DNA sequence: TAGTGGTCTAGACCACAGC
DNA sequence: CTGTGGTCTAGACCACTAT
């Protein structure tokens, strides 16, 4: 067998294929996917290559493997965690309050070194950048500083974020594959403090979130909240 | 080469070896570990087997690999997982760091009006109260202010929390039924700031958590962390 | 250029599940 | 028993880094 000519490794191609088919519904939760031998034949590669693809999807909890039996699509987990990817607008409305947002920036930019690394793309790759302030009953409650991969959301710039938040739009165009987040307490830079109408000595509760879709980084967002009037909650 | 006779796979043996050496300090953060070829020779196995061990440690963020250069011990991050109700001691040890705790208070009290309401018991109900400061490599990283329902943990007062944290003890005696939590950024009261050895102007990342067991409120805990050196992370 | 990791092969033997 | 996954080999070629 000659080595793949494209730059993407074969095992990655197979992972993508399996993910796509699962998303398409070809195999539903609990269904068995083809055996390693079958996939090896289908892709005309060695079994070890298929094994790596399937093994990695197993550690990513996409699949379950049972020795002697087969490989199955895993159950989607209930994640009622704090970062339920809920739109802030929806959250505010569910409290019976009025939601309003102000668009402070909406531009296309070329990824610099650092952003390129975070998005796992080449420097110069097109990204969208938006900064939106969300108000609950006219009180600033969140600054949403968002970077979006242009490939996954081509018409991001033409959206009307007053009627549909970036979150709501992105959920529609880029099916969510995974999320990483971290939460910290930080003293905000002055620009953020001003937008939140707080002193730059008050600390903020900051949520960083990176979402994956179609095996790419879809969006990286930093949400700044006034520490004294916001908290994350959850239960399980 | 014959297959290993022991039941543990060779790649796992190599992972264990590498983790042990890192923990021992043989290679510190940023140091290069031996090359794949060297490890293959050392363990008398094929390079692919070593590759799997090292690759998995890389996805687990224990190592960094740079093609053409080498494999290096990754930077340990101050991070906690939210979703797992993990003992802070265990978390610190899993980073290869030393955990130490100081007991500041351990008493039995009668629930006042407010506590009684939170615990859903009658005022006067017996509760235990403990305040413990946790250190990671002698740096204060958490103040754990805990209230415990005496019914579910009768011998709470006689525990040695230096060897077993309250969390570990409670997990053993009171099977977890459910959890509610909230996270906020707060300026700490002076007593807390002093225990964390920070200025009372620096904000804290605070996790409130209420756990249920046997259909009662088992424990209500407030954990204070220095905002500038602690964050919660997670992914799904 | 020599050394490193990144990937892949075409076999192999084993343990386990299900018929 | 057959078919599945679990592991391992002894090579190979490639891309990249450091010198």
TrEMBL record, chains A, B:
The cross-references to Gene3D superfamilies, in alphabetical order and at most eight, read:
Chorismate lyase-like (3.40.1410.10), Winged helix-like DNA-binding domain superfamily/Winged helix DNA-binding domain (1.10.10.10)
Its domain of life?
Answer: Bacteria
- Annotated InterPro entries: Bact_HTH_transcr_reg (IPR050679), Chorismate_lyase_/UTRA_dom_sf (IPR028978), His_ut_repres (IPR010248), Tscrpt_reg_HTH_GntR (IPR000524), UTRA (IPR011663), WH-like_DNA-bd_sf (IPR036388), WH_DNA-bd_sf (IPR036390)
* Pfam families according to UniProt: GntR, UTRA
- Sorted alphabetically, which keywords does the UniProt record give? DNA-binding, Transcription, Transcription regulation
PROSITE patterns per the record?
Answer: HTH_GNTR
Domain named HTH gntR-type is located at: 8-76
Do you know which CDD domains this protein is assigned to?
WHTH_GntR
Q: What is this protein called?
A: Histidine utilization repressor
Specify the species: Undibacterium danionis
């Amino acid at each position: 067998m000659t080595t793949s000519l494209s730059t993407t490794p074969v095992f990655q191609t197979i992972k993508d294929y399996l993910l796509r088919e699962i998303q398409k519904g070809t195999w539903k939760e609990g269904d068995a996917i083809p055996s390693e031998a079958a996939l090896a034949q289908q892709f005309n590669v060695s079994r070890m290559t298929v094994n790596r693809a399937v093994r990695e999807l197993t550690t990513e909890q996409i699949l379950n493997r049972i020795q002697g039996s087969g490989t199955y699509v895993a159950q989607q987990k209930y994640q009622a965690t704090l970062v339920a990817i809920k739109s802030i607008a929806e959250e505010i409305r569910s409290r019976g309050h009025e939601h309003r947002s102000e668009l402070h920036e909406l531009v296309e930019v070329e990824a610099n070194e650092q952003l390129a690394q975070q998005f796992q793309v080449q420097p110069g790759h097109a990204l969208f950048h938006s900064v939106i302030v969300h108000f609950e009953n006219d009180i600033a409650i969140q600054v949403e500083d968002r970077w979006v991969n242009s490939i996954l959301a081509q018409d991001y710039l033409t959206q009307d974020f007053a009627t549909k938040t970036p979150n709501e739009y992105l959920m529609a165009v880029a099916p969510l594959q995974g999320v990483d987040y971290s939460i910290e307490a930080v003293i905000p830079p002055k620009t953020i403090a001003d937008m939140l109408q707080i002193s730059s000595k008050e600390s903020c509760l900051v949520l960083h979130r990176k979402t994956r879709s179609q095996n790419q980084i879809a969006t990286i967002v930093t949400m700044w909240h006034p520490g004294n009037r916001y908290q994350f909650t959850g239960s399980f």
